[in-house]
Amino acid sequence: MTAAPSGPAFSVHDIPFSAYGSWFDISPVVAEKTYAEDLHLVSHQNGMHGVLRLVPLDASTGARADTRVEATPALLTWTAGRGRVELAYEAPDTVRLRGSGLDLGVLAAARTLTPFSGTYFFQDPVADAHVFTSYETGRRYRVTLLSGALADTAGAQALGSADRGVTVTAPTDGSWELAIEELDTARPPYAPSAPFDAVVASARAAFADFVDAAAPWRSDATPAAELAAYVVWSATVAAKGLVTRPGVLMSKHWMDKVWSWDHCFNALALAEGSPELALDQFHLPFDHQDESGALPDSVTHSEVLHNFVKPPIHGWAFGRLRRTLPTPVDHTELTEVYERLERWTGFWLTARRAPGADLPHYQHGNDSGWDNATTFDPERVVVSADLAAFLVLQLHELAVLADELGKQNVAERWTRTAEEIQTALLDRLWTGDRFVARSTTTGESWSSASLLDLMPIALGEHLPAEIAGTLADHIKAHLTPYGLATELPTSPHYLADGYWRGPIWAPATVLVEDGLRRAGHHRLADDISARFRALCETHGFAENFDALTGTGLRDRAYTWTASSYLLLAREHQRREEAGTDDPVA
């Protein structure tokens, strides 16, 4: 009965088991930093909700079985002795399960049903199936028995507190099989599309096609490439609800949103092999751009948040995206991107520049993406150098796009504005040794030990050489054996698990590496790339990492980390092929 494994093995405690397009996963992670004893079907519609418990049971006693869980991209298994349960995705909204030597309980995760919460359970006579309806997700979960027998049914039509669900069993020396679907209201009775082994083979092929497109360059020198591709593939959801196009969530753990700068790194990793999906990632937050031109803070299935924004790295990202796409972007696409970037830039030049001010400001650290960086300790409403640098890059990209679209006069205006803001950046925030931040109300300035203060290195070739060199020297001080600490480890404010007050983050790594390379500091850029790639190969694709130990922190299956690994590994491989990588210092 055993299906052949496929792809890299991984722990479901770190990475959810899911499939491209699905809005649910199979995982013990049911809430932020919350791990259940059993694997759950966890849906990300209307938020993150553990809906069903999947409990392997001893076939002779009915007691919970002590099983070993193993996962590869196409197959999840529970094993205990000679007993085995297998699960595979037949479709984004349907999983198939089969077992022998073990029974399985499919149970509502919530015991209590109220008029506004919980899960109702009943037998559907039309579909000859059992159905769970969830207040939390607003969806139904239909269980159809394909072979074997139901050993027990509990809580059908029960109100209040009750155990609800079914237990499936098999004849002696036989096997059982069932299907679980996530659906809206109704659909025809379930009918299998293929035998179980063919379902596994199809899932294996779908992932193989994705990883071959995303990382055709992979080799023994990039041992984490397939798992990185799986993290991205499995976190991709179909267009549904407020997610207007296929979207890569940051995670199918609790960080199950698209934030309005995270998406850029996923787009860049996907650009070469999946260009349509890459462009979808770039555009998704822009689909919710408001009347001021601002992007939302985040987008997910049932929620768009506008209480903060994110930094304007989108001009930098689109320029890099275009250089990576396998075919040129057509005139219609360029026009749409130009108009969206124009409005986004206009937001920063109007709504975020105080009267008489040359430079824009953040209203909170969250706007920068570096939520609690020490740059924001003295005040939160501040003019910071990273923001001005990103805006300069965006203005330059607007000038390029305007020129291509035949708007030469407008292109010249964008170029002049970029030069004016860069001049103001250097006049107002450069001290001769470092960049400072300034209060929007008092004009008082301060510096910090945060890597954020060094992010103007992203300007690359636009920076005067002496300033780029000084920034490079300061950046070296942030390097640990694992990568770039976001707060100097010698700082009194350094915290090992301090979010942006110490840990290593993927986006900062990519932006710094790119800026250094464009400024001519190739050896340091190579070193930073190598350390981050080694970090991921050893410690996975966590939201961030302890800068002094490399340990993964917070959400352990984060797509912008996986995408940043793919991006840096791809570029390293291409430089090696071209013979342009400098040896690591």
Provide structural commentary.
It is a single chain. The longest helix has 22 residues, at 408-429. Helix content is 32%, strand content 23%. It starts with 23 loop residues before the first strand and ends in a 7-residue tail after the last helix. The model is unreliable at 1-5 (pLDDT under 50). With 585 residues, the protein is an alpha+beta fold. It is built from 13 helices and 28 strands. Strand 20 and strand 21 (303-305) form a beta hairpin.
Keywords:
single chain, 585 residues, alpha+beta, eight-stranded antiparallel β-sheet, 13 helices, elongated
Quick structural gist:
The chain is built from 13 helices and 28 strands.
List the helices and strands and how they pair.
Layout: E1 24-31, E2 34-43, E3 49-58, E4 68-72, E5 75-80, E6 83-91, E7 94-100, E8 102-108, E9 112-113, E10 119-124, E11 129-134, E12 140-147, E13 149-154, E14 160-161, E15 165-169, E16 176-183, H1 196-214, H2 225-234, E17 236-237, E18 247-248, E19 258-259, H3 262-270, H4 275-283, E20 298-300, E21 303-305, H5 314-324, H6 331-350, H7 365-368, E22 382-383, H8 385-404, H9 408-429, E23 437-439, E24 445-446, H10 465-477, E25 479-480, E26 483-484, H11 506-518, H12 522-539, E27 544-545, E28 552-553, H13 559-578
Antiparallel strand pairs: 1-2, 2-3, 3-8, 4-5, 5-6, 6-7, 7-16, 8-15, 9-14, 10-11, 11-12, 12-16, 13-15, 17-18, 19-20, 20-21, 22-23, 23-24, 25-26, 27-28
Helix pairs in contact: 1-2, 2-13, 3-4, 3-5, 3-13, 5-8, 6-8, 8-9, 11-12, 11-13, 12-13
